[in-house]
Amino acid sequence: MNSNSIALAGNHESMVVSLSKISQLKPQKTGAHVGSFELVPLTQTRFSNPSVRRLIIESHGIFVNLQAQTKASVQEQLGADELVSFSRQYRSVLRSACLSLQETAQGPSEDIALLCDIYRGGELVWSLVELLFIQPQGGSVAVDLVDWAQLNFTQADEYTCEILKAAESGFRPDQQPQYWNAAWLFVLSGRCEDARRLLLSHSRKDDAAFRSIDELLKKFPLDALNRDDVSAFSDWQEEVGSRLRNQHFASYPQLETIAKILAGNDAAWSDLRDVIDSWHEAFVGLALYFHPKLRVVELGEVAEEALRLFPVSNGSLSSLDQTLLALLEMDVLEALRSLSSCSADWWLVSHLTDLLIKAGAQLGPTGDEATQVDLREFLLLEYGSSLMAHDSLWQIGADYLSWCPRNGRAYLEAFFDKIPVDREHKALKLMSACAKYQLDAVATSVARQMTVKLLSAGRINIALGWCLQAKDPALVSFVVERALLEYGQSGLLGSLHLLEHLGDNAFISPALIFLQKYHEFHSLLKAGELLKAGQLLTDLIVSKVAPRKFWKVLFADALLLLDPSDGQVIIDKEATYQLIELLQSVTTEVTALRSNAFVDSDADRNEFSEQMTAFRLALFRNLGKAVCLS
Amino acid sequence: MVNAPFSSLSERAQFVCGKVRKVRWAIGVDRTTAPDTFATGTWDQPVNDVSLWSTTASRSAAFDSSASPPPAGDTFVQLSRFEIGADCEDLVFATSKTLLVATSSGDVRVLDVTPDQIVQQHAWEQLHSLGSLPCAASCLSVHGTDVVTGGEDGKIIRLDFNRVDVKTKIGNIGLSSVRSLSHCGKDQVISGHLTGQLQVWDLRVKGDREGGDPCQTLAASTALDAVTSLGVHPAQPNLVAFGTQLGSVGFCDIRNAHRPLPDLLPIASGPIWEIAFHPLYPDNCFTCADDGTLLHWDAAALKQSSFRSQDASRMNVWLLGAALSDHVKLTNLLPDQKLPVNSVDLAGGSVLVGSDSELVHLVENVLLR
């Protein structure tokens, strides 16, 4: 028989899949391992890319500044200028991420190319959002679109670069295949000055037609639009129209096309059929020359018109196109929805939504404030979560989660619990973060994990330090009892310098107070202060605070004090009486009730009984001495 | 009150991809200006590394044509790199060509560092462990050929640079985890612990097999406030500055430890990861903390006697307690920093900084008096 077998193993970071071929089931299962592979979420590898990492970190800085500044401003509302400034900062880091990806890509990589496309699309969308929703309104929409085109539509510039390069090698610019395409694209984007310059490099630039178009381009009244001086613009278009009708450009069909565009003449589109790749390129020209007075609400219609003129090749719009259309139709919610489908991760949507909400953009039906808040929170939680799942981005992820008022805290606690605490520096970092976000329970958990790890390794002295950080009385008591049992016999308790240093912190657990006092007892002994030591020891025994298994150590210590070489009475009469009384009850418990509370095993009970007998004898002898001396 | 930085400061920063745990200037020829190269060690990455960087090399000189050039606009050029796997916990230049790294797997590695490559000369492996599990060698200090390391297991171990087999244990079993360590003079080492204590060790004392007792134990802060960093005054090695887990800074004179320590100065809301006196201008001290602050402490003004009482006039300015906190000039050199700052190193008028925002900053023209 031959069958395949799959084994899976996973953790929060990745999953390993292992394939084997089983050749025999009986009498023994035998087979061969075919292969294994690891499945890692794409975000893990993507976030490890330096350019992406840098984008994440830099945008985090911008995000935090934005939140802080908003909170600190009047009525938690930032002005348009400040919002534009933040928007530009975001766009700037997005652009440098794109450039950095291209520069550092080691050889062709599908993922890198895809990411670059996504980032470029992101820039396109973001700059449009800035234009429509964040910039202070006023001024001509058409002019804004020209700026937008200049920033994002670089095809004409690329063509111009090629032409210039060729010119350096001695080729005539106007003979380059892309010459006229570049000129038309410039004109369509409203970049008449650039178009003019390109045309001046034509070998026939002194011909009448060229001089005519040059003059028209020079007089292109973009400012007039901005000043809302529509009549100046229509006069200029009239001029273009009349020159067109008077056959000024008859000898150069390409120039005629330019004139048609400038005049707002529909015939231009059929000429440009093979030149224009997508509706974006036509859109700005359509708005500028055909609908110069357009208002923001009309953008959607113009976009639809552009799409009708230049429909998409395979019939269905890409997510990016859908996003742009939705934005132009002022349907922000729909735009964000489409944007999520064409994004690599939650970075773009979450930051954009946060900014849009601060700019007061209407995301849902009017009056539905809850949707806005929920949407922002949902996206930030998703983004923050994706960061938390990564090895080293947990600090940044935590920050994002902390800015989610409703569920952020719960997410923070859940994620922090999952972060492995395998070294002390990490534990200290985590605890500092817990203090920052006021996650006391998690801080306790971290300290507990460190304590337990140290206890399993048998390092109780170090565990003692960490259990205090946990602020958990039960844990402290547990560790102290272990410490007493471990070190009590060997006398190493004396070297636990920590115990001199506890101060009020000892009050967290009675066991710890006992340990502290016991350490003090040893210090007094070492310093030769026998009377004080004796008094302290008696108090300790009589208070019954010590763990029962430790009492035999205390009795042994007391025995030494009762039998000093110089015959001195260290434990006085009253103390001796107290000890005798206590010893009586212990003896009853051990002999009559056969209790094993004080010993480790049945076998040790006899030894303990003998010790108690010796102790009792010594106590009576001491009593006698004390009475005689008093 | 913390001031904003002077406008004459110039700051350069570069993304180095990897949280920077330690930055160290290479040992320069001229102590008044910053050297051309520095080293960084990263932490919390799947694979951590130690790298050598140049602040001045031009890109074409540093790279041969086969390697891909660094992105445009880089201020520092990475010259060489060595993978250490586990976190870098501490980094020290023992000589101009030798770098010692303490890692979170308990190793201390000795690396030969040149602009072309970094090669491991030898390593003391698993110096620190918890039973069978490795644990971090948290801190290192080097003085001549003497190397001392402290770890999470509470052990302090003395090594000889030139003799791989020599390992002496300092301190006995009762110690709590060692978070920071520094030589204060040739024969003395001071250690800072998780439980807020400082212990001073005399290296000349031959301990028993278990190590021996410290010659002094000082209560730097409380038992819940670890001593996370130590800095020794360059001219007076008995004067030690320390930073704590809860964001306080303290100063003490280990010769007069019987006197109560001056009060702690709470200056940050997170652990102080590094504290250092300027090697040439010791009236200037620098601290970097988990809350993103990088503070320049300028105590030069306190030299004027008008701030000091009669008996305090001969005391070092850093030990003035309340007078220090009232009159020291504090400047935050990185006011925009959001993420923790982990390490600072000083040379000439230049301050080198490493942080969890995966950036190395170089702040130049710092005013030092």
Automatic annotation (TrEMBL), chain A:
Q: Which GO terms describe its cellular component?
A: nuclear membrane; nuclear pore outer ring
> What InterPro entries does the annotation carry?
Nucleoporin_Nup85
One GO term (biological process): positive regulation of DNA-templated transcription
Which Pfam family, just one, is annotated for this protein?
Nucleopor_Nup85
Keyword list (alphabetical) reads: Membrane, mRNA transport, Nuclear pore complex, Nucleus, Protein transport, Translocation, Transport
Compartments in which it is found: Nucleus, Nuclear pore complex
Q: Which domain of life is it from?
A: Eukaryota
Gene Ontology MF annotations: structural constituent of nuclear pore
Q: Give the protein's function.
A: Functions as a component of the nuclear pore complex (NPC).
The entry sums up its family as follows: Belongs to the nucleoporin Nup85 family.
Q: How does it assemble?
A: Component of the nuclear pore complex (NPC).
- Listed name of the protein: Nuclear pore complex protein Nup85
Organism ancestry? Eukaryota, Metazoa, Ecdysozoa, Nematoda, Chromadorea
From TrEMBL, chain B:
Top-level division of the source organism's lineage: Eukaryota
Tell me which stretches of the chain form a coiled coil.
none
What range does the record give for the signal peptide?
Answer: none
InterPro entries, from UniProt? WD40/YVTN_repeat-like_dom_sf, WD40_repeat_dom_sf, WD40_rpt
Record localization: Nucleus
**Major place of localization?**
nucleus
Keyword line:
Nucleus, Repeat, WD repeat
Q: Name one GO cellular component term.
A: nuclear pore outer ring
Q: Which PANTHER family match?
A: NUCLEOPORIN NUP43 (PTHR22652)
User: What is the designated name of this protein?
Assistant: Nucleoporin Nup43
Higher taxonomy? Eukaryota, Metazoa, Ecdysozoa, Nematoda, Chromadorea
